[in-house]
Design brief:
The protein is built from 48 helices and 5 strands. The protein is mainly α and 947 residues long. Among the domains are: 185 residues, Rossmann fold; 107 residues, Serine Threonine Protein Phosphatase 5, Tetratricopeptide repeat; 112 residues, no CATH class; 61 residues, Orthogonal Bundle (Arc Repressor Mutant, subunit A). It has a 5-stranded parallel sheet, sandwiched between helices. This is Helix-turn-helix transcriptional regulator. It comes from Streptomyces populi. Keywords: ATP-binding, Nucleotide-binding.
Length: 947
C-alpha cells in the first residue's frame, strides 16, 4: 500500500490515543540521550507520534533540526539536507574547513555543481562537522519524518554522519513507512543508517476501544458499537483509515445494516487499489468473489466457478494485494481495507453474481443462507425462512452477533403479511443484539419497530428491549413504563414482562428492595398464569436475589422454586436467573468452593452461547470468589479482563470498575484502585443508581483505607451505611464494608462509633449465620480493645479471628488479622499496658507470619505496607504523662511520633494515614490535653521523664 499519501497533521500530544506503551519506551530512550526510529504502515499514526515526541523533547534541546520528505520531491538532490541545515549553516560555517564549507554551501544553495560523485568525501565530512559544531553549543535534536522519501543524496549524507555521532549530544527522532506485516524487517536498513544504539519502535494498530475513542474525539459520535466494530475490523486498527471510514459514514445519507459493507471513500479506494489495474479482468473478478466470502479458500473459489484461482490469486499476491504468508490459512488480503475497497468498487450486479456463486459453493448452511439473501432482490418467504433457520443455528453456536445480521436480512426478505412477520424477526434480531452486547443496536431496532407496530405483543416486547438496553441508567427511560403498561392492557403475560422490569426500576432508581421483591413476586405469579415459564423463572431469580440481600428467610425456598423443572436453557445461565441467584447465596454463606464451581459452570456456558452481558457478570463473580479465597493475583487478572470487556461493550462499566477497584486494592495498584472507585461512584451518581452507588462507595472506602487515608475512608463508608439502611440491605455479607469502617474509625480515634458499627452488624450476622463476617468483626473489635488499653484480650481475639478466617478459606482476611496482630505486638496500643498477671511485656517485633500469608495471596499492596512497617515500626515514648493515657490509639501513636521529632508527612508514612488525618488527629490531641502545639507535647513528656 504505497503512494504519496500523507497522514493528517496533528501535533498535540493529548490527541495521541492508545500509544502509552510506545511513548513510555520512547521517552525512556530519549531521556537517556538515545535516539528513536518509529516505523509502521501508511496511516498508522507515525507522524502524529513523531510530532508529539518532538514537542516534548524540543524543550531540552539547544537546536532542533527538522525535515519531512515527500514522494513527489524525492528526486531533488540535497532537499532534505537543506531542510535540516539551511537555517543554521551560517551560524557554524566559520567552524568548518574551507573545502567542507564550500561543498556544503554549494549543496544547500544549488549554486555550483556539487554532487556526491564529485565532492563525496568533502560533503560527508562537512555534514558530520556541522552536526558536531552544533552539538558543541548544546544538545541537538534531529526530527526527520518519512525517511523512505528522502532524496538519495540526503539519505546517504545523513546516514554517514549518524553512524559517526556516537558520544555526542545528538539525538535523532525519525519515522519511516514500512509494510503492514509486523514481521517485515524493512526498517532495518534505516536503522543501520541511524545513530548507534537507536531504538526501533513499531507503531501498532489500535485496539477497538481506542478506535472508538479516536472517532469520538474527532466528532464521529453516536455510532452504534456494531458499526465501530466494523470500522475497526475494516481499518485493521489503522487510525487514518478508521477516520476516513468514519467520515464516509457521517456523510452517507443512510448507514449500513449489520452485515452490510461499510462505505469506503474514494481516497481510500485509490490508496489500496492502485495496483488493481495491473490484474486481468478475470483475476479481479476472482478477488471480488474472495472479498464477498467470509473465509475464502482456493477450494471455495474453485467451487464458485473460478477455475484459475491459483494463478489469479498468485498474481494478486505478487502485487501485494494478498498476504504471502505460508502459514496463513486460506486466502488472506494484505489488509482488510483491500477486501472492503474491492467490494465497494464493484457494482450491485457484480456483487449479486458473486454472492449467487458463493450461495451454491459454500458448505456452511449459515453462509449459504447469507449469500442467498445478498443475491436476492425483494421479498421472498423461502429466503426469509432459510435466513431465520440460519439465525437460530448461529444463536445455538454461540454467535449472537452473526444471528443479528441474519435476522435483519430475514426481516428484509419477509413479506408484510407473512408469519412470523418482518417486525417479529427484527425484534428477534434486537434480542440477539442484547445477548451479543450490542445494546445501542438493540435499542435502535426496537425504536424502529415501535415507530410502526400496532400489535400489543410486539410493542411490549420492543419496550422491554429498550429497557434492557438502558442497563443501569433506568432514569433515562423512565417514561417508557407507563406506555408499556398501557400497551400491555390486561394480558397477564405482557403485564408480567412489564412488572418484572418495574421491579428493577424500584431497585435501581428508588433503592427500594422491598418494593422490588414485591414486583418480582407479582411478575412471577402473572407469568405462571399466562404459561410464560421464561418470564416466571427470571422473576423468581430476581425475587431470590432481593430476598438474599435483605436477609429474608424465604430466599432458599425461592431459589428452589426457580430451579425446578421445566427450565429455560438460556434463563438457567442468565445473569439474572436462578443459577446466578444461587451463586450469590452460596458466596454470601461462606461456601466458597461450591460458589466457585457454580460460577465456573455458568461462565463456561454463557461463553459458549456468546451471552456477553452474562459473561461480564460471571467474570466478576469468579473474580470475587477468588478474591474472597485470597487468590489476589487470579482475581486481579479476571477483574481486569472483565473491565476490558465492559469498556469494549459499554455494558456495566460502573459495576465492573467498582469490583476491579477492590481487586486492585488487594493485589495490584492502590492509586489505580482509587481512580476506578471514584469513576464507579461518579457513574452511579450520574445514573441515579443507589444500589451500585453504595457498592462503589464501599470500594472507594476500602481503597482509601488501604492507601492509609482513614479519615477519607470513614467519610465514604459512613455514606454506605446510610445508603444501605435506606435500601433495606440487612445482610452484612452483601458488601462486607463493616469491618473496614470499624477499623478506620479506630484509626481516627472514634472507638465508640466503631463499637456501635460492630454491635449492630454482629446482631445481623449472628441471625444469618455469617461466620466470616463475624470473624472480621472480631478482628475490628480487637483493635477497639487495644485502643482502650486491653492488650491481652485484644491479642487473643485477633489470634482467634485469624484462625477462624483461615479455616473458612478467607486467605486475605486471615492475612489482615495476622498483620493487625503483629502490629499490636510490635507497638502495644496502650503504652506500658499490662498483660494478664500485671506484668508489662513488650511484644515481638515480627511481621514474618503476616508477610508469609500476604505473599501466598499475592497481596502486593499489603506486602508493601509490611515492608514499610518492618523498616520503620512506630515506637512508644520513653514515659508518657498520665494525661496521655486519655488519648485514643491513633492519637497516642501520633503523639509518640511527635515526641520523636517526626514531621507530619513522616508520621503519615509510618502509620499509613494521610497528612490530613495526622493534622486532624493532632488537633484532637491538643484539645484533649489542653495545649496549643506539638512543642507542648514534647514538653509534657519531658516533664515526666526521669533524671
Amino acid at each position: 500500500m504505497r503512494g504519496d499519501f500523507h497522514e493528517p497533521a496533528r501535533s498535540r500530544p493529548d490527541l495521541v490515543i492508545g500509544r502509552e506503551e510506545l511513548f513510555a519506551g520512547a521517552r525512556e530512550q530519549l531521556s537517556g540521550g538515545g535516539s528513536v526510529l518509529v516505523h509502521g504502515p501508511a496511516g498508522i499514526g507515525k507522524s502524529t507520534v513523531l510530532r508529539a515526541l518532538a514537542a516534548e523533547c524540543a524543550e531540552s534541546a539547544r537546536t532542533v533540526l527538522r525535515c519531512s520528505a515527500t514522494e513527489s520531491e524525492s528526486h531533488l538532490p540535497f532537499l532534505a539536507l537543506a531542510d535540516l541545515l539551511g537555517l543554521v549553516v551560517d551560524e557554524i560555517a566559520d567552524r568548518l574547513p574551507a573545502p567542507q564549507r564550500t561543498a556544503l554551501e554549494s549543496a544547500l544553495t544549488g549554486r555550483g555543481e556539487s554532487t556526491l560523485q564529485r565532492d563525496g568525501l568533502a560533503l560527508r565530512l562537512a555534514v558530520l562537522s556541522a552536526f558536531r559544531a552544533l552539538a558543541a553549543r548544546g544538545p541537538v535534536l534531529i526530527v526527520a519524518d518519512d525517511l523512505q522519501w528522502l532524496d538519495p543524496a540526503s539519505a546517504e549524507l545523513l546516514g554517514f554522519a549518524a553512524r559517526r555521532l556516537g558520544g555526542t549530544p545528538v539525538r535523532m527522532l525519525t519515522a519511516v513507512r514500512t509494510e503492514t506485516e509486523p514481521q517485515a524487517q524493512d526498517h532495518d536498513r534505516f536503522l543501520r543508517a541511524s545513530v548507534p544504539e537507536t531504538l526501533a519502535l513499531r507503531v501498532a494498530p489500535l485496539a477497538r476501544a481506542k478506535v472508538a475513542e479516536l472517532l469520538a474525539r474527532r466528532g464521529y459520535t453516536g455510532l452504534p458499537r456494531s458499526t465501530v466494530r466494523d470500522i475497526h475490523r475494516t481499518s485493521g486498527g489503522n487510525p487514518l483509515f478508521a477516520l476516513e471510514l468514519g467520515r464516509a459514514l457521517a456523510e452517507s445519507p443512510t448507514r449500513p445494516s449489520p452485515g452490510e459493507p461499510l462505505p469506503v471513500p474514494t481516497s481510500l479506494r485509490a490508496l489500496v487499489l492502485s495496483r488493481l489495474d495491473m490484474l486481468s479482468a478475470e483475476a479481479r473478478h476472482t478477488l471480488l468473489v474472495a472479498s464477498a466470502g467470509a473465509r475464502p479458500t482456493l477450494a471455495l473459489l474453485h467451487a464458485a466457478g473460478r477455475e484459475n484461482a491459483e494463478a489469479e490469486t498468485g498474481s494478486a499476491a505478487a502485487l501485494g494485494l494478498l498476504s504471502t504468508e505460508r502459514d496463513a490459512p486460506g486466502i488472506r488480503f494484505a489488509h482488510p481495507l483491500v477486501s472492503a475497497a474491492l467490494y465497494a468498487e464493484a457494482d450491485a450486479q457484480e456483487r449479486r453474481a458473486a454472492h449467487s456463486a458463493l450461495s451454491r459453493a459454500a458448505s456452511d448452511p449459515i453462509e449459504r443462507a447469507r449469500h442467498l439473501a445478498l443475491a436476492t432482490i425483494g421479498t421472498d418467504p423461502a429466503v426469509a425462512a432459510r435466513l431465520g433457520e440460519a439465525a437460530a443455528a448461529a444463536r445455538d453456536r454461540g454467535a449472537p452477533s452473526v444471528a443479528v445480521g441474519l435476522g435483519l436480512l430475514a426481516a428484509r426478505h419477509t413479506p408484510a403479511d407473512a408469519l412470523p412477520g418482518p417486525d417479529e424477526r427484527r425484534l428477534g434480531a434486537a434480542e440477539d443484539a442484547l445477548t451479543a452486547g450490542e445494546t445501542d443496536l438493540a435499542r435502535d431496532i426496537a425504536r424502529q419497530v415501535l415507530s410502526r407496530a400496532t400489535a400489543p405483543a410486539e410493542r411490549v416486547r420492543a419496550w422491554m428491549i429498550v429497557v434492557d438496553s438502558a442497563g443501569q441508567a433506568m432514569a433515562e427511560i423512565d417514561a417508557v413504563f407507563p406506555q408499556a403498561l398501557a400497551d400491555a392492557g390486561d394480558d397477564p403475560g405482557l403485564v408480567a414482562l412489564v412488572r418484572y422490569q418495574l421491579g428493577w426500576r424500584a431497585l435501581l432508581m428508588d433503592g427500594e428492595m422491598t418494593k422490588a421483591r414485591e414486583e418480582a413476586a407479582r411478575s412471577a405469579r402473572l407469568a405462571a398464569r399466562a404459561g410464560d415459564r421464561r418470564t416466571e423463572l427470571l422473576a423468581l431469580g430476581f425475587q431470590a436475589q432481593m430476598e438474599t440481600l435483605m436477609g429474608h428467610p424465604d430466599a432458599p425456598s425461592t431459589i428452589q422454586r426457580a430451579m425446578r423443572e421445566p427450565q429455560d436453557p438460556r434463563v438457567a445461565c442468565d445473569h439474572n436467573g436462578a443459577g446466578a441467584a444461587r451463586f450469590r447465596w452460596l458466596i454470601m454463606g461462606d461456601r466458597l468452593a461450591e460458589a466457585r464451581t457454580a460460577i465456573t459452570t455458568l461462565l463456561r456456558e454463557v461463553q459458549r452461547r456468546g451471552m456477553v452481558e452474562s459473561e461480564l457478570h460471571f467474570l466478576r463473580g469468579l473474580a470475587e470468589t477468588e478474591l474472597r479465597s485470597g487468590h489476589c493475583g487470579r482475581a486481579l487478572d479476571l477483574a481486569r479482563e472483565s473491565l476490558r470487556l465492559a469498556r469494549d461493550t459499554g455494558i456495566g462499566e460502573a459495576a465492573t470498575a467498582m469490583f476491579t477497584s477492590l481487586a486492585e486494592a488487594a493485589g495490584g495498584d492502590v492509586d489505580r484502585a482509587l481512580s476506578l472507585a471514584r469513576e464507579a461512584v461518579d457513574r452511579a451518581e450520574e445514573d441515579g443508581d443507589m444500589v451500585y452507588l453504595s457498592r462503589a462507595l464501599g470500594a472507594l472506602g476500602h481503597a482509601q483505607l488501604v492507601a492509609g487515608d482513614a479519615s477519607a475512608a470513614v467519610g465514604s463508608l459512613r455514606r454506605v451505611r446510610e445508603l444501605e439502611e435506606g435500601l433495606g440491605v440487612i445482610d452484612p455479607a452483601r458488601g462486607r464494608w463493616h469491618g473496614d469502617l470499624a477499623e478506620a474509625l479506630v484509626r481516627i480515634g472514634e472507638t465508640a462509633e466503631a463499637q456501635d458499627v460492630i454491635d449492630v452488624t454482629r446482631r445481623r450476622a449472628l441471625r444469618l449465620e455469617r461466620e466470616s463476617v463475624l470473624a472480621v468483626l472480631d478482628r475490628a473489635e480487637a483493635l477497639v480493645r487495644a485502643a482502650r488499653g486491653e492488650q491481652g484480650p485484644a491479642e487473643r481475639q485477633l489470634a482467634s479471628a485469624q484462625d477462624r478466617l483461615g479455616k473458612l478459606g478467607y486467605g486475605l482476611e486471615e492475612a489482615r488479622a495476622a498483620y493487625a496482630l503483629a502490629g499490636l505486638r510490635t507497638f502495644p496500643q496502650a503504652a506500658g499496658s499490662a498483660r494478664a498477671g500485671g506484668t508489662v511485656v513488650p511484644g515481638p517485633a515480627s511481621y514474618d507470619e503476616a508477610a508469609r500469608l500476604f505473599r501466598r495471596c499475592r497481596a502486593l499492596p499489603w506486602l508493601r505496607q509490611i515492608e514499610a512497617a518492618a523498616a520503620h515500626p512506630p515506637a512508644a515514648p520513653p514515659l508518657a504523662p498520665a494525661a496521655l493515657d486519655t488519648l485514643a490509639a491513633t492519637e497516642r501513636q501520633v503523639a509518640a511520633l511527635v515526641m520523636e521529632g517526626a514531621t507530619n508527612r513522616e508520621i503519615a508514612g509510618r502509620l499509613f494515614i494521610s497528612v490530613k488525618t495526622v493534622e486532624a488527629t493532632l488537633t484532637r490531641v491538643y484539645r484533649k490535653l489542653g495545649i496549643r502545639s506539638r512543642v507542648d507535647i514534647v514538653r509534657l513528656a519531658a516533664e515526666r521523664r526521669p533524671d
